[in-house]
Amino acid sequence: MNKNMKFLAIGVAAFVIGFSVNNFAMSDVPANYKVAVVDIPQVVASSTQVKNLKKEQQAKADELVKFVEKARKDVAAVTDETKKKELEEKYSKELISKKDKMEKDYINKLSKIDESISKTVNEQAKAGNYNIVLSKGAVLYGGEDITQTVIKAVK
Q1: What is the predicted pLDDT for the residue at 24?
Q2: Is the dihedral of CA 55, 57, 58, 63 positive or negative?
Q3: What is the CATH number of the domain that holds 133?
């Protein structure tokens, strides 16, 4: 019975300490503290900049496919093995160069879009006097959803 009393006393003490720590942590939060949430994937999916970038990337990918098809035809038309190998190397280097340029351009434009969306979220947070803005996916409950406001501002 003595062990049970010790266990109960330790459990009660842990509960009291935990409750006190929680109250202490929450005591610094002002009553007018405003939290907003934003569904970033939804903002990105709704962005005309992102849609345009996807179309542009698809057009560039189509150009690469045409380039590869032309290169295959050109290489197939050559009968001399030495010249065929040189032509394959030439087209291979050209393809790698085009692909690298396309990827760098895409990353650069995507980075600018990301900066633009982040800037818009900051502006909307300041306009709404929010103290903190969190990703909607990380929040289980609470916060005012400003996703639609951000989508309208991003377009």
Answers
A1: 46
A2: positive
A3: 3.30.910
